[in-house]
């Protein structure tokens, strides 16, 4: 597209940026709409959306990592209330982020539709009339021939049609107006139209689909019901009754860590072996891995991550088992040092809670304290602080399984005043001070984190994306050009003028004109 065409396109779609003065309400509404649907506003909103997403990557998000978000709240007690009011712990679900996103969608649709009209007119447009001064164009050739004007025009038109040029039907006598490269305008039309298809597909998936995540310990199973999800986000028109029933059992989880060399400690491969049960079908074995989701009944199951779940047993001060089970510890980094909480509300005489970290391969440094030397479970250990008191589970306020409400709890200390930190290797037991009980690290299991989603608009979005790429290739690599031929009789023969113009910088119009002139001269000389 030339600078002239681009300027005309902007003039046709971008409104006057000057503020209104003394406008009626209807005129003010039309002016506001024109401002909202301008390309300038769309670019500003796109920048604001990128700017608004920054807190989502800096502040821990409760929907993504609730344990990290809870620790951040504890570490920043003064900023937490302010951040909570601003919705910074739920950035992508906050009203202000949604408002920017909605305005951007409206602005894009308002920008695209007028441009579709412009490009549609461009695809159907006839070649422009011959300019008055052909000699001023970048490519210009002239010669005289003994052939008649009608013969020259006929031969020129036939030659240009063979070269897939479109001719102007209502050209004046002795003139041929031709243009080639309409697929460039068609590419622009397809590209901008595909944006609407992508937006429609995304809207269909968001409104009529859902997504949620589950944490499943190896050996356990889950079913597709709302109560089984750690977080569940349905579309506006997707009721929970439409969840298709199925059951997954995690039989085995396999992970391979790079042991040495570059990238040592990273997981090179991990997958889970499942048993899948659906109504009316026999159980079947499936394997799920990264980038290889499980698809069934319109749902897709993705393997997002994995971690460790230590089996902890707490006996209270009376010797009774107050808690015994596997507890998910959430990874804090690539070394799989993990954070977790264990609660024992049935402990007597006081309720107990443990909070601390798990180390797959325990090591200790005098400078930094305990750390993990390798992400695989070679020397597993837990290091936790103990609390006693009231867990406030009856307060009516929902609590996360990854946090402890410490308002009614006190840190258990040793006789010398130091915190009673419990450092337990696998299979070991430690006693709590003051006869409050014992804690045992019985063993270790792994867990996987999966995402179940249903996006009915994915095929539409994919089709729009493919069309966008096709249209973009057409608009970038097709070179539109125009050629005009004017023939008029003179006393010394027919004077023929041929001129051309390329609408982009990627074409060689001079070489094409030379070939055309040579072919026409050969045809007319035979007459």
Brief overview:
The chain is an alpha+beta fold and 527 residues long.
Structure overview:
32% of the residues lie in helices and 32% in strands. It is α+β, with helices and mostly antiparallel strands. It has 4 domains: 3-117; 134-180 and 479-525, Alpha-D-Glucose-1,6-Bisphosphate, Chain A, domain 4, CATH 3.30.530; 205-306 and 451-469, no CATH class; 308-446, no CATH class. Strands 4, 6, 10, 11, 12, 21 and 22 form a 7-stranded antiparallel beta sheet that branches. Strands 13, 14, 15, 18, 19 and 20 form a 6-stranded antiparallel beta sheet that branches. Strands 1-24-23-3-2 form a 5-stranded antiparallel beta sheet, covered by helices on one side. A hairpin with a 6-residue loop joins strand 13 and strand 14. Helix 8 crosses helix 11 and helix 9 packs antiparallel against helix 10. The radius of gyration is 36 Å and the shape is elongated.
Percent of residues in β-strands: 25-35%
C-alpha end-to-end distance: 40 Å
Radius of gyration: 36 Å
Major β-sheet, in short?
A: 7 strands, antiparallel
Which tags fit this structure?
527 residues, alpha+beta, Alpha-D-Glucose-1,6-Bisphosphate, Chain A, domain 4, 4 domains, seven-stranded antiparallel beta sheet, disordered N terminus
What layout of secondary structure does this protein have?
Elements: H1 3-13, H2 25-36, H3 39-52, H4 54-58, H5 66-75, H6 79-86, H7 95-124, E1 139-145, H8 149-162, E2 166-167, E3 175-180, H9 182-208, E4 210-217, E5 221-223, E6 231-234, E7 247-257, E8 267-277, E9 284-289, E10 294-296, E11 299-316, E12 321-326, E13 330-331, E14 338-344, E15 351-359, E16 362-365, E17 369-372, E18 381-389, E19 409-411, E20 421-425, E21 429-432, E22 437-454, H10 458-477, E23 481-490, E24 493-502, H11 509-525
Antiparallel strand pairs: 1-24, 2-3, 3-23, 4-6, 4-22, 5-7, 7-8, 8-9, 10-11, 11-12, 11-22, 13-14, 14-15, 15-18, 16-17, 18-19, 18-20, 21-22, 23-24
Helix pairs in contact: 3-7, 7-9, 8-11, 9-10
